[in-house]
Amino acid sequence: MEGGGSALPITVQDLTVAGLDEQFAAIEDAVERYLAGDLSNVAVVSQPFAGREVFLDYAEEEFGAATGRLTFEEVVTGELPEFPVAEIVLVDNCHYLYTREIGGFDVLERFLDRVATLDAMYVTSWNRYAWAYLSAVSNVDDAFPETIEIPRLDAAGVRDLIASYHGTPLPMFVEADEGGRMKTVDLAWESLPLWGDRKLPVPRPELQPEYVLSGLRSESDPGIEAAVYRRIARLSEGDPGVAVTIWEQSVRDGKIAPSYVQEVDQPLEIDDDEAFVLEVILTNERIAREQIERICTDIPVEQALGTLLAQGVITIDDGRVGVAPERLYSTVEHLARRQLVW
Asked: Treating both helix axes as pointing N-terminal to C-terminal, what angle do 21-35 and 52-63 enclose, rounded to 10 degrees?
């Protein structure tokens, strides 16, 4: 039961071109204020795949020898690792410092105690859903008064991101798919409740707004290109990493059409146990199977992973489980309805 897949890498230049100058400037301003004597710490917070690490890359490039960096790749247990000795300590993936189990906050508390000593400035990155949960149940936001959130991109931002990421020449933008036209209507699926826990999947027609908008052409906003970028922005909900993943999956033989940008993010059909396992995966972004089993002690984890994998909502690579980028927003929507994330 294996499957690979993750969002594609993006760079400082990609996100700057996409219009996130304000967020990069906020990092630079916070560090410069610290170096001038204003003691503060920073949390960079975002959706999975949105490029948090790029902001720490930027701080590392800008402030060079004054920085030291530590990246957590998995859930931290036991003692904290050795931290770099530097004026500015960059720490990636701080959501790995806690788990939702008995004693699961011990490592986080030790980390916050360390930060409170103010022997350095800490610029950290966090999963948005882990951050929201921790802000509600702990004092993590007190330790990081400067919070920088990576916003969702609009269609223009997605266009500029992809132009920078892909480079030139771009694929040819075409109107027709192999059948001759872009579809005006797709079939979306929804569940009709029956009796007990049974549900019947039924199709319903769904108008494709990009088709309608593609007719609204002007010299400055060519219809086909605009329709492609609007569709990618909608399906990715403006997440940079998801947007470039969808783009790469949509280019065919050097061409792209609005209809090539396929919608695969269908509603989930999962039970309470599977939803809790999925919440653990989402808030960690990538987590080892055995760590899921340690957290979800009363759940048949292998069975839950099998169901999630069969619905295409997760990937498993070398024993590490993550949310599939193109299924991110059905995951978030489903877990939000169950009030497991907010």
From this structure: 50
